[in-house]
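Weekly puzzle thread! Below is a chain. First person to post its structure in token form gets bragging rights.
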Amino acid sequence: MDSLPTIRASYRRLSPLYDVLEGAIFHSGRKDAVALANKRANQRILDVGVGTGLALPLYRKDAWVVGIDASPEMLKRAKARVERKRLENVGGLIEMDAMRMAFADRSFDAVVAMHVASVVPDPMKLIAEMKRVCVPGGDILVVNHFASSGGVMRLIEKSARPFAEVIGFRPDVRLMHLADGARLQIVQVRRVNLGGYWRLIHFRNTAPADAAHRNA
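Winning reply:
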């Protein structure tokens, strides 16, 4: 995706179908990521690219959760979900550019971004901002599709690249490019969702460890 207006236009079209497209099929990865964010009590958690709020009911009731998204249409649906489910732990849902967050440094104990790295124009800026707003030693959790190393799937991904604006994401983000550029400790990488085609990366907001887990 090339720009914030492009992202907004894409998700304006997708928002009515988002829960159907992203609901059950991505639930396992969503559940796993939130479970890692829920490890400690009374945390401040940021959900980057909160979308329609599918993950919001999964967060601990003692957490203080803030969600941001570039799409006002998606946020409208997220706010309706919060009201419908009476999610009192959700402290705010804010329209915001994930690559230029308005939060102060070290504002959150855990930062989660699901299916966002392949949407923003610059995934490295996204990770840098997540790192900035996370406390030292905090958890940074990324769920995303990453480019295949070869074979038929790689050909399909390359063929789909020109249609990124239509399908709502860029299919060729490289896992190790993102991980190496993050300059964070990699706690684990695991396969999630249908067929294990997506990855959950658990970063810790410290310097990279020499023996990082890279079980891609």
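Puzzle host: Confirmed. Bonus trivia for everyone else. Residues 4-204 form a domain with the Rossmann fold fold (CATH 3.40.50.150).
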